[in-house]
Design brief:
Elements (H helix, E strand, L loop, with lengths): L4 E6 L2 E7 L10 H15 L4 E6 L4 H13 L2 E7 L7 H8 L3 E5 L1 H4 L5 H11 L3 E2 L7 H7 L12 E6 L3 H6 L7 E7 L5 H10 L7 E6 L12 H14 L8 H13 L9 E5 L5 H9 L6
Parallel strand pairs: 2-10, 3-4, 3-6, 4-5, 7-8, 7-10, 8-9
Antiparallel strand pairs: 1-2
């Protein structure tokens, strides 16, 4: 697959942006790679149903519903919380044929237990189980292909980090020598770093990496007027849309590091745009159109 890279310049620093957001139609971004081998395994096991979990505004739910429609696989989404017929993410999932099951937050905490899986199978029959966020070994295998063939073109590579699956795949990319920085969108500590180490079972020893926790803006789906204004200015300047949960925080972090001399001049920089732009509709539904104003 040929991936598009756009070039921007900020304060004399050239930055290449890998546009995963331009992959495909409804199934795009890093979710395409996370789902690629899971869809193949679902078909290999001859299961006609894929079941997964997520919140009411989950990009993963959106992408899984789109993948199910594209590959003619029945999908079931176990949604944390209550139904809201006006929620654009849930509207889309339903339009793709996903069956939605709403459970309370207390019950949702038990989603990964064998007992809960048994309860689900008693209700829905046999299915291919995909965890919340879609991160598993097959997802990491897919994400390891994002930069395949890149070799040693970049000194610094940046991407936003949520559950850690995408960066685990990136640091497992073979024939690549670079330093990867994940910009965490979660308030965190070494727990996420340890999780990434556990997920990346075959990391490339030629790739050094770290996770930066300074640009989460308060945590997942948290934001400030400064972040929103940055996203608006970035779009006006470069004609590239960012989202406020993942890519906006990543690019804001890169610009901050350039402003404060945390990136050496002359370094070849790549920022991975992981997609997630479909989430803006849900964001604006919740926060009254603050991105596209």
């Amino acid at each position: 697959m040929q991936l598009q890279t756009d070039k921007i310049v900020y304060k004399d620093f050239p930055i290449d942006i890998l546009r995963l957001d331009l992959i495909g139609d409804k199934l795009q971004g890093n979710k395409y790679f996370k789902l690629k081998y899971n869809i193949a395994e679902d078909k290999n096991q001859k299961l006609d149903t894929l079941l997964t979990f997520g919140g009411a505004f989950s990009n993963h739910i959106y992408a899984t519903a789109a993948a199910g429609k594209e590959h003619d696989i029945k999908t079931i989404g176990i949604i944390r919380g209550e139904d809201n017929p006006n929620n654009p993410t849930l509207q889309f999932a339903k339009s793709m044929g996903m069956q939605l099951e709403f459970i309370n937050r207390e019950a949702y905490q038990h989603r990964a237990t064998p007992a809960f899986e048994t309860t689900l199978k008693n209700k829905f029959g046999n299915f291919y189980l995909l965890p919340e966020g879609g991160t598993n070994d097959l997802a990491i295998q897919g994400c390891a292909e994002i930069l395949s063939g890149l070799k040693n073109k970049y000194d610094r590579i940046f991407l936003p980090v949520g559950t850690g699956g995408t960066i685990a795949g990136i640091i497992s990319t073979q024939e690549l020598k670079t330093h990867v920085t994940g910009i965490s969108v979660l308030r965190g500590d070494d727990t996420l770093t340890k999780a990434i180490k556990g997920l990346a079972k075959s990391p490339n020893a030629d790739i050094t990496w770290d996770v930066n926790f300074n640009f989460h803006y308060g945590g997942y789906a948290k934001f400030s007027s400064k972040l929103i204004e940055f996203i608006r200015k970035f779009y006006k300047e470069y004609n590239i849309m960012l989202d406020p949960i993942y890519t906006g925080k990543m690019m804001g972090g890169i610009f901050f590091m350039i402003d404060h001399d945390k990136i050496e001049p002359g370094k070849k920089i790549l920022a991975i745009h992981t997609g997630g732009l479909q989430g803006i509709d849900g964001w604006e539904y919740r926060f009254e159109k603050i991105i596209k104003a």
